[in-house]
Design goal:
The chain is of the alpha/beta class and 322 residues long. The protein folds into 2 domains: 144 residues, NAD(P)-binding Rossmann-like Domain (Rossmann fold, 3-Layer(aba) Sandwich), CATH 3.40.50; 142 residues, Dihydrodipicolinate Reductase, domain 2 (2-Layer Sandwich). It is 36% helix and 29% strand. The protein is built from 8 helices and 16 strands. An 8-stranded mixed beta sheet has the order 8-11-12-7-13-14-15-16, covered by helices on one side. Helix 1 runs parallel beside helix 2, helix 1 crosses helix 7 and helix 6 packs antiparallel against helix 8.
């Protein structure tokens, strides 16, 4: 029987739990969190899914098995390095899934990278748009065009610091290229409080280029959150993807003729089921590997940390985003 683990029983962790519960092979699922209240909520949400698995809600690492098949680290970024270190020092892990933003310090990326190589743990980062079928279809169409792309994402108060990295990963995925340049010059000169206590946010635009010449801008403007729109172009072809309301893809061919199609929103509780299926069947999955994610996360943290230092006046190595 598989032993699977979720570290962090909060909002996202409980959705991962629901996804594992929908997997159709018997499992022991362990959920660990120091918060009794978080464990209670996760246990309540587990009751929303009919399943045949054994689920253990624990606060003590000693209650975990020595060998773990899938471990999902759904903690906040501030403690993720210490959690990964603790996990890999005491347990043998076959597949490791990390939530974003990975870490708040630059040195954490290299230290965890070295640890993963030393332990030989196959690791991916949860950028779920790579698993969404409408983006997979767009990628196939871009590949048939065989050119660099331009991507613009725009919305209001959707959490640039917390979520912007998802769209940098998306442009890397769609174009098949890595980040070359990245800057936060167009990010406004104000540090905002995040909805997550103890963390910060920004509004404005992050922009950059990829090694193959692709360009991107990612904007979170001031205003009431609503529809998030991503516009993608490759040669004479365009795609406009809306999220949050009227979930649609508008595709324009080389003659500028538009086709509108709706897509089904794939929530984390569904994607995690497919993730488990892929890992156990193929030993890999659609998510970016740690190494692939590293190429985007490191420059992303670098430019946001620099912006935070400038605006806060603090000479710190920690950028409090999650």
């Amino acid at each position: 029987m598989k032993n699977n683990l979720i570290v962090g029983a909060g909002q996202l962790g409980s959705r991962h739990l629901q996804g594992l519960l929908k997997y159709n092979k018997p499992q022991n699922i362990f959920v660990i969190d120091p918060s009794v209240e978080s464990l209670r909520i996760a246990q309540q949400r587990s009751g929303e899914v009919e399943h045949m698995h054994k689920v253990y809600f624990v606060s003590n690492w000693d209650k975990l098995p020595n060998n773990i098949d899938i471990a999902i680290i759904a903690t906040n970024a501030g403690v993720r390095e210490s959690v990964v270190t603790k996990l890999l020092e005491d347990h043998a892990v076959k597949f490791l899934i990390l939530e974003k933003v990975l870490f708040q310090k630059q040195k954490s990326y290299d230290e965890v990278r070295a640890m993963l190589l030393d332990k030989g743990v196959a690791t991916w980062v949860n950028h779920p748009r790579r698993m969404m079928r409408h983006f997979q279809q767009i990628k196939q169409e871009i590949q048939s065009v065989g050119t660099s792309i331009t991507l613009h994402t725009y919305g209001m108060n959707w959490g640039l610091a917390c979520n912007g990295i998802h769209f940098i990963d998306l442009v890397s995925y769609l174009s098949g290229s890595s980040v070359d340049t990245l800057d936060a010059v167009w990010v406004e000169n104000e540090v905002l409080d995040s909805k997550r206590s103890g963390h910060i946010e920004f509004v404005g635009t992050i922009k950059g280029t990829l090694e193959n010449g692709s360009l991107f801008t990612i904007t979170s403007d001031r205003g009431t959150p609503g529809i998030l729109t991503t516009s993608i172009s490759a040669d004479k072809y365009r795609w406009i993807v809306t999220e949050g309301a009227g979930n649609e893809v508008v595709s324009f061919n080389h003659e500028n003729k538009a086709v509108v199609s709706e897509y089904t929103v794939e929530y984390q509780s569904t994607l995690t089921t497919r993730l488990a299926e892929q890992l156990f069947k193929k030993g890999t999955c659609d998510l970016p590997t740690y190494e692939e994610a590293y190429q985007a996360h490191v420059p992303y943290l670098e430019v946001l940390l620099e912006k935070y230092q400038q605006l806060s006046g603090q000479l710190t190595d920690t950028c409090p985003i999650t």
